[in-house]
Amino acid sequence: MCTVVRIGASSAARITGYIAKGTAVRGYLRCVNDVGHVWYEITGNELDEDPRFVFSGNL
């Protein structure tokens, strides 16, 4: 089983990859999108062109 990784904090955002079950993520930022859903940014920062987001309901 894998967790979908998206290019933006929305279920409509393009899928950019997957994280395998059991994979450790060392750093993340907790984000809340405009409709109140919690997402986690697992890479990137404000200057990164391609941050990666995981929907909290899929963890």
Q: Class by helix and strand content?
A: mainly beta
Work out the radius of gyration: 11 Å
**What fraction strand?**
35-45%
Q: What are the secondary-structure elements, in order, as H or E?
A: EEEEE
Write down how many β-strands occur, each being a DSSP E stretch of 2 or more residues.
5
Biggest sheet strand order reads 3-4-5
Number of domains: 1
Distance between the termini: 11 Å
Folded structure, characterized:
With 59 residues, this protein is mainly β. It has one domain. Helices cover 0% and strands 42% of the residues. The protein is built from no helices and five strands. The strands form two sheets. It has a three-stranded antiparallel β-sheet with strand order 3-4-5, with no helix packed on it. Strands 1-2 form a two-stranded antiparallel ribbon. β4 and β5 (52-55) form a beta hairpin. The termini are close together. This is SH3 domain-containing protein.
Gist of the model:
This is SH3 domain-containing protein. This protein has 59 residues and is mainly beta.
